[in-house]
Amino acid sequence: MLIAVLGPKTKIPIQFSDDSRIWAWSRVKFAVLRAEERNKRMRTRSAQFSPGVWSKQRKIAWRLLQLAGLLVSAIGVVFVATAGPVFSQQATSQASQATSVQHVKCVIGLENIKPNTKGTLSLLPSGLEFSAGKSKADISTASIQDIFTGQESRQDVSGPAGTLAKAGIPYGGGRIVSLFSHNVEVLTVEYVDSNGGFHGTVFVLSPGKATELKNKLVAQGAKVTNHVQPPPPEQKP
Amino acid sequence: MKPLTPAAFRSNFSTALGAAVLLMVASFLSPPSSLGKPGPAPQQPQKLTASAIQLERSDAPDDLVIPEDTRVAVYENVILQLNKTKKFQHVYRSGDRTADSVPDLVILRVVPQAFKAGSQKQREVTTVTGATSIKVKVQFASRDGKILREKVLEGKVRFYGENLRATYDLAKKVAAAVNETF
Asked: Is A137 inside a domain boundary?
């Protein structure tokens, strides 16, 4: 027995017997002819229809690719436009963090600055500068006699308005609000004026900033003596 | 005599009235005591005069540890309050060389005597504890070192406010002492 393979799906078993040899051969020939004809038809059909279909699909795909590219580029532009200033701000803030500290409270001691004024404390090559609005005050590094730092805590809700608000909470709820506090660092700078008169200034900064400024001032040449620091009042029993 | 009768009431009343009259007569006839009479006024210390004052920095005793921000705040607050009194033409700071030429300069020393570090949180939560106080000896001295006046003052913050508010309270009391003295 012989199996004639005429295509991927065309398998014809052929039996070579004496009686049916001619019939089988004609059957094989017929099957071969039919398979060839079918293949031809398929080729001509694909030749007739595939160019149009492929061109449409390619166009659609190309347009989709273009749209995707536009979308990606638009997202990229938006990202660059938004992230650029942020990065530049970060870069500038990192650069300015080294030289200035914002939201610093000058408790007392600067000429032309009212007590408890908030402003920006900057470290210049010549010394310290405190600016609050239009008023400014300088402390030159050469005039600094000593620098002290200390840890303290401040109430989260304080001041006259805060005190009134706490007093207005019924059933002593204001006392519970008073439990919330935050740590601050106090920077005390002692310096002399041109006549030799002693001045002292007290700044309240966020934690870590006072020590950083002190170290930088010392690096600039400010005088510092060794001190005995009393324990923070909050840690006392 | 039966009690609670009109006769008994009249007898008791007349006795009480007589005693009251006797007491009144005795009080009028007795010599006046020295308690009610205002004595001679206590001698007011003579006020000092000076055209300028210089605030000297004074170190605390060795056994007294005062945070430097408190000391600086006392110094600066006293300078501010001295200027507010307007008793002097000039208020000099410690170490100011221009004060050397002032003839009638008075030197003010604020010597720390005691310090108690309180807690703002404790004050606001408990109301009765956590007060911050600083006690100082205030000396008015002449240029040659003679003590002209001396007073002990205490600054406190009891209820509301930061610890450094005690220095403001103390400076106000120093200013009041200056107003009494000059």
From this structure: yes
Show residues of chain B in contact with A178, CB under 8 Å.
121, 124-125
A202 touches chain B (CB under 8 A): yes
The last residue of one of the domains, among A40, A56, A90, is: A90
The CA distance from A21 to A27, in Å, is: 10
Q: Which structural domain, as residue segments, surrounds residue B118?
A: 52-181
Please give the structure tokens belonging to residue A224.
């510092």
Q: Residue A71 — pLDDT band, cuts 50, 70, 90?
A: low
Which three-class secondary structure state does DSSP give residue A85? helix
Q: What is the DSSP letter of A11?
A: E
Tally of domains within chain B: 2
Whether residues A138 and A59 fall in one domain: no
Domain-ending residue, one of A64, A90, A116: A90
- On whether any CB of chain B is under 8 Å from the CB of A236, the answer is yes
Q: Residue A64 sits in which domain range? A: 2-90
Chain B residues inside the 8 Å CB shell of A152: 163
pLDDT band at A175; cut points 50, 70, 90: confident
Measured CA to CA, the distance from residue B163 to residue B65 in angstroms comes to 15
